[in-house]
Amino acid sequence: MNKRIRLPYRKLALSLTAAIATLAGLMGGGSWIWWQSAIAPLQPRQGQTPSQTAADWLQVNVPEGASAEEIGRILHQAGLIRSVTAWKVWTRWQGWRQAAGGFHAGTYRLSPQASLPDIAQTIWSGQVQQVSFTIKEGWSQKQMARYFEKLGWFSASDFLAATQRIPRDRYPWLPENIPFLEGYLFPETYQISVDQRTPEAVITVMLDHFQKSALPVYEKRNGLAELSLQDWVTLASIVEKEAAVASERPRIAGVFWNRLRQGITLGSDPTVEYGLGVTQTPDQPLTYAQVETPSPYNTYINAGLTPTPIASPGLASLKAVISPEKTDFLYFVARYDDTHVFSRTLAEHERAHANIRDRQDAQ
After folding, report:
1. First and final C-alpha spacing in the chain
2. Which parts of the chain have pLDDT scores under 50?
3. How many whole angstroms separate alpha carbon 240 and alpha carbon 145?
4. Which pLDDT score, from 0 to 100, does residue 101 have?
5. What pLDDT is recorded for position 303?
6. Are 309 and 275 in contact (CB under 8 A)?
7. How high is the pLDDT of residue 91?
8. Secondary structure tally for the chain: helices H, strands E
9. What sign results for the dihedral spanned by CA atoms 76, 78, 79, 80?
10. Which residues touch 120 (CB under 8 Å, ≥6 apart)?
11. If you compute the radius of gyration of the chain from its CA atoms, what whole number of angstroms results?
């Protein structure tokens, strides 16, 4: 039975060197000189550090199912190794031609300043080229779509189409009958292979992270057994969009819980913005006409939560919904410095709103 060689890399290299030295003794010194030259880097290092410029690296794709010899030809044509023959000798001696596992397909970022053994080890161990992407807390899936399109990975429309394909076969915890994956695409910085730059692949890593990081929080929702996963993520997404200061998240969550339990509409601007596809600014706040425009997402008009989450909440907002601040506040209004004034009565709220508006007008 063929087995993958598991000797330490340094010991393998020394064994092969000794074998070549023996071969050189039998065939003459020329063989040894040839071997040293064949496995040496194509470009001398000349004192360079590992932080080489991008121009020093070459991108090479190893196709699925490529043989060791085919990989050698690809590397030689790319200008990364001197000799296909030396590649054959090296991989045969290591046992990599017959060993279980094989070379890994994928895209690699390799340097001509690396030796043949180092390049072989990189491909054998599957150290494919990685790229990163960052999903910010509070982003909607439309914002994500524009972000990926700007990166040049795929079109915004392809990403949005992929969010409508709900993979409940792989993630059975996803709520039934959701129209898209809004709210479940976890905000984080991710590293993926350059070959994984597809809508399906990035959605998978985000759902995996939600499953790993968010679900355990939901499963420990002491005292909130009636809270469904969909309602949890939906309320957390509204908290995420309202809270700009981390310390206010539990209080804002507490206000929303109070309003929900008393049957008062949430009156959240971000839900109106989401429904209308607009974004308000200090210079262009929502108009009365917009706030009065009927929409399933208008929480000034409709009681309860929105039909779906309105963004991807971060872990802090998800935790705030499960552990809200116990308060008797029912209202809050933004100060335009990312903080809010909280009020217990409508009269207090209206006074706070008027004071903030007067200050804004004065400025």
Report:
1. 81
2. 1-15, 22-28, 48-54, 98-100
3. 19
4. 53
5. 95
6. no
7. 82
8. 15, 6
9. negative
10. 87, 90, 91, 94, 96
11. 30
SS3 333: strand
Identify whether the C-beta of residue 343 lies closer than 8 Å to the C-beta of residue 332: yes
What number of other Cβ atoms are within 10 A of residue 346's Cβ?
A: 11
For residue 157, what are the contacts with CB-CB under 8 A and spacing of at least 6?
Answer: 145
Q: Residue 360 corresponds to which amino acid?
A: Q
Instruction: Tally the C-alpha atoms within 13 A of residue 196's C-alpha that lie toward its C-beta.
Output: 16
Place of tokens 């499960």: 322
Structural domains in the chain, CATH included, are: 57-128 (3.30.1490.480), 131-219 (no CATH), 229-362 (no CATH)
Instruction: Decide: 186 and 135 in contact? Cβ < 8 Å.
Output: yes
Closest to 17 measured CA to CA, from 102, 109, 115, 114: 115
Residues ≥6 apart with Cβ < 8 Å to 282: 336, 360
**Closest C-alpha among 101, 178, 89, 189 to residue 137:** 189
Helix (H, G, I), strand (E, B) or coil at 46: coil
Bridge partner residues of 333 (DSSP): 341
Separation between Cα atoms, residue 216 and residue 210, nearest integer Å:
9
Contact 108, 123 (CB under 8 A): yes
Retrieve residue 116's tokens.
């043949």
**How many whole angstroms separate alpha carbon 219 and alpha carbon 50?**
45
- Global pTM reads 0.78
- Ramachandran assignment for 46, one of left (phi > 0), alpha (psi -120 to 50 degrees), beta (any other): left
- Vertex 201 angle, CA 100 and 126, to 5°: 30
Give the torsion through C-alpha atoms of 314, 315, 319, 322, to 10 deg: 70
Give the Cα separation of 241 and 268 in Å (integer).
9
Quote the CA–CA distance of 81 and 84 in Å, as a whole number: 7
